[in-house]
Inverse folding.
């Protein structure tokens, strides 16, 4: 039975027209990356898991696509489990042994274990069970018992509690030990023994995916271009000349829930400079945005600029330094929920009335960039970090003013946060022209110590990113793709039979040599059918070279839109080609 | 502790110079794909596993990279196993029950099961064990017992045999049943019972990876571009105009053992036509090879041409139709092991002396293409299929002769097989120019029914592929990349301080607007350091714009190779740019 084919959710096939339009964007971006002195690199689609894991937070780790080891990937894991005997039996045995052997004098020690409970690494639970040293057994297993309890579902908690009380009644367990963690539950079971098996199943089900992954997967698909770039810089540091300006345009993969406009495979398009803390890099990157969007005819984009140091300075001067994240998250919502909404949220996060009062100039920081800079300077005069941020912002704004932009607008936006914990200086974001409803179409910023995680500290970087998919949608919406960009064929030669076809193929060959996208219909099918094909492919010119033309050494060109036919001598083919330009 | 970064074996980072050179090849290939009327498509990096699995043979299935399901991927599997109780105990219980309950009168039925043995699906072994109906028990488990035997290692076979003999001695098992599958082994163990546990561990270890994979992985990385293309054609059939000519340049992934020149991630670069069985497509594809390699300045490549129908015809006329594969595999080695070697191998495969005698004209089919065609025609005159192959070959050769090739050489090579089971008509292979030691740098052929596996039968396709990595190595070896192709910067402006730097940035901006790859050194570091950077980046021109130049509205250009310095007025910048061209 033939399969009905489909593709994985969150992925896309790109049709010829889409590929051509996407490449149009890529080509313009690349051209300017290059004139700005950026060099291309490419990194492998998958990296070693340890290169990626832990770099994007817990949520990121979860969204990274992992690749199964090849071959009998399960064998090692199976051997570990099975050669040590039957997992459940071992566990039962050890737990039963615990029940009879437990040292009831461990009260205080156990209490301490309970307190450390939340630090206990669940992942180690299953694996440690195999290599338990019996010396430590009583003490360790007691804490493990509690660990099991902490991850069990309510149903199994009841079993466990019930069993515990039986044990207490039988004098095998002391009440004060167990009561530390069961005190709030209702005990209405009367089972004579605890069902380890069921609890065990539950436990293993919860732990095993996380536990198993590193055993059976050592590689993972690239999640962004930044971490692989940092890895590249460290690995190739001796070949690179700093400042190193690189661009990289490659797909990344995320196991996100697919939704409108969010895909599991999508291209990132990044330009970064590492190894220079000069603010001229920020200036250049703003110019680069302006240049690219101008060349794409996407005029009137807004480049928003902020600086992490300003946000930190504000939090400092209003006395909410510890609440920087809460403060900026709230401030970031200003244009959505308004001044009152922001104030309310700040209050709810524990920022004081007086602090909010101090920050209130931020809520209506309108006016020219120069006005805003002045007010920020005043507001932050008592914060060293904040003042530095203002002076950085001022340098960038003034230099750009002096250089001029072609079509973009540069504005200060102190509410801009974008991955605050990541950026350390400038923060950029590009908004589509007014009237287009679309999120940001680009963003970036400066981050210190990009490569520190891989052992090369103190390398500052600054970079920007172009949001290909959104730029595509905006260009489509505004009709900014060049006319006929997706025309795949300039000329189709019709096929009138073997001899005529050969002559037409010769003509086609000449056209192609001159860079004309030309094709010969591959068989002498009915003319109807051949014309229909020409129409479907939207070919502007069709060439007819039948018996008569063959005898006259000529060919007829039909302009499909007007229907006008022109006869050329075969020797005049270059005249025809000249007319196509 | 910082990680020492590395990349997975078989993958590569591409440096700027490598990316630029690879893109040079891609761009030329793409340009001609387009003038030949091919349209680009792109497909997702991963496909649903069922789209890929089973399409490349067992070896291919093994080499496909599988992607772990996201989230708690193991939970379902764990639930299935564990909620049904303990796996090993169940198995033991059932096997023991088998030993005591076996119906010894089933002789003939069991014999039939044994005969069907090879049809038995190993994958079902473990899962079926859980839901065994006890009604069928004796009969089924007997065959399963043999199944276990068939997959056990020798060591466990001995255990099994030994146990079986004990069972026979005890009258629990009849000799004639067991002897069907143990007859050739030596029985020198005297264990009193069979060690199910060890056998079970061994069995599970062998089966579980294969068994487990579909449970925890539903997606897999693209293995080639052909199957995704077939899937694309079927899914998009209503949007496509046939013949559909597509090209596709994307990476593929194979879990091959990495070795020199073989990678786990590499680009494929394919052009295919589907929906036309016209031989003009073969002609075009040969022209396309010629055009691309000529444009790459890689002159003198050899395009070898064969036809599956000719190989089948030869096997037919020499009376070795059933041995077609053995015959062609041997013939394919002609230039490696010589005529005698080929004959010897054919004999060893069971091809008769007289058949080999009949085929002997093939062994020295030298001479012109026309001569070869004539001899093949004579040799194959009694085979309809063979004669058709010759006439196809003749049409292609004659048409190409009539059209002419620019720099490639087209030769008939009846020893060419290339994935014989895949191609049904023309077979192509491109060899690097003489003197370059490199395997084929391209290949392809015609395949009927490309899309049948996905439910769209009778669509003929023909396609070719360019071997990017090898073409790269050949161009590198022959020094055919354009000079300075990897120059990443045309001009570097040195930085003499804030005011001078701003003037230089203005100049840099103008240069960039004119398409010059230009950069400003980001800080006013010592001139030594700035010049060293310029040297390292191999910049041909350095611009000096110091205080004096700033005051004079001028800039100095230093040609790095000659050391010659020229002064330009800032207003003359376009003169300088003109001189760069």
């Amino acid at each position: 039975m033939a399969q009905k084919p489909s593709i994985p959710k969150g992925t896309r096939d790109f049709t010829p027209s889409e590929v051509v339009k996407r490449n149009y964007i890529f080509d313009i971006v690349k051209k300017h990356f290059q004139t700005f002195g950026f060099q291309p690199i490419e990194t492998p689609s998958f990296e070693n898991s340890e290169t990626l894991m832990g770099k994007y937070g817990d949520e990121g780790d979860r969204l990274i696509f992992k690749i199964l080891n090849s071959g009998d990937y399960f064998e090692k894991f199976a051997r570990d489990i099975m050669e040590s005997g039957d997992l459940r039996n071992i566990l039962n045995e050890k737990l039963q042994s615990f029940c009879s052997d437990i040292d009831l004098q461990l009260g205080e020690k156990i209490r301490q274990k309970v307190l450390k409970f939340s630090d206990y690494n669940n992942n180690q639970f299953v694996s440690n069970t195999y290599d338990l040293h019996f010396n430590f057994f009583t003490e360790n297993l007691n804490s493990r018992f509690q660990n099991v309890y902490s991850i069990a579902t309510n149903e199994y908690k009841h079993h466990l509690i019930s069993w515990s009380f039986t044990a207490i009644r039988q004098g095998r367990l002391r009440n004060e030990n167990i009561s530390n963690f069961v005190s709030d539950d209702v005990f209405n079971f009367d089972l004579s023994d605890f069902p380890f098996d069921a609890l065990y199943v539950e436990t293993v089900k919860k732990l095993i995916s996380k536990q198993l992954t590193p055993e059976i997967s050592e590689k993972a698909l690239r999640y962004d271009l930044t971490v692989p770039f940092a890895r590249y810089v460290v690995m190739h540091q001796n070949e690179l000349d700093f400042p190193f300006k690189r661009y990289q345009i490659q797909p990344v993969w995320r196991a996100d829930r697919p939704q409108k406009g969010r895909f599991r495979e999508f291209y990132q398009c990044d330009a970064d400079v590492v190894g220079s803390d000069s603010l001229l890099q920020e200036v250049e990157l703003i110019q680069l945005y302006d240049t690219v969007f101008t060349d794409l005819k996407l005029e009137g984009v807004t480049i928003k600029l902020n600086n992490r140091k300003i946000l930190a300075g504000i939090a400092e001067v209003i006395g909410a330094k510890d609440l920087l994240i809460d403060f900026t998250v709230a401030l970031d919502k200003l244009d959505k929920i308004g001044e009152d909404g922001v104030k309310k949220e700040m209050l709810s996060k524990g920022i004081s009335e007086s602090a909010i009062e101090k920050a209130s100039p931020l809520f209506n920081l309108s006016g020219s960039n120069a006005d805003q800079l002045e007010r920020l300077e005043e507001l932050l005069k008592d914060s060293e970090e904040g003042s530095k941020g203002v002076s950085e912002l001022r340098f960038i704004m003034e230099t750009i003013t002096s250089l001029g932009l072609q079509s973009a607008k540069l504005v200060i936006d102190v509410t801009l946060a974008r991955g605050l914990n990541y950026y350390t200086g400038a923060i950029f974001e590009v908004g589509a022209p007014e009237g287009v409803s679309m999120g940001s179409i680009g963003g970036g910023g400066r981050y210190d110590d990009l490569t520190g995680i891989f052992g090369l500290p103190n390398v500052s970087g600054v970079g920007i990113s172009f949001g290909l998919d959104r730029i595509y949608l905006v260009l489509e919406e505004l009709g900014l793709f060049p006319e006929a960009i997706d025309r795949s064929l300039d000329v189709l030669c019709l096929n009138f039979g073997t001899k005529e076809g050969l002559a037409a193929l010769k003509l086609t060959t000449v056209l192609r040599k001159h860079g004309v996208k030309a094709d010969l219909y591959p068989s002498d099918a009915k003319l109807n059918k051949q014309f229909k094909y020409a129409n479907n492919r939207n070919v502007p010119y069709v060439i007819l070279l039948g018996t008569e033309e063959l005898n006259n050494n000529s060919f007829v060109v039909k302009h499909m839109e007007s229907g006008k036919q022109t006869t050329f001598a075969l020797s005049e083919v270059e005249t025809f080609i000249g007319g196509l330009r």
Remarks:
- Residues 81-145, 150-159, 171-207 of chain B have pLDDT under 50 and may be disordered.
- Residues 308 and 420 of chain B are 7 Å apart (CA to CA).
- Chain B touches chain A through 120 residues (CB under 8 Å).
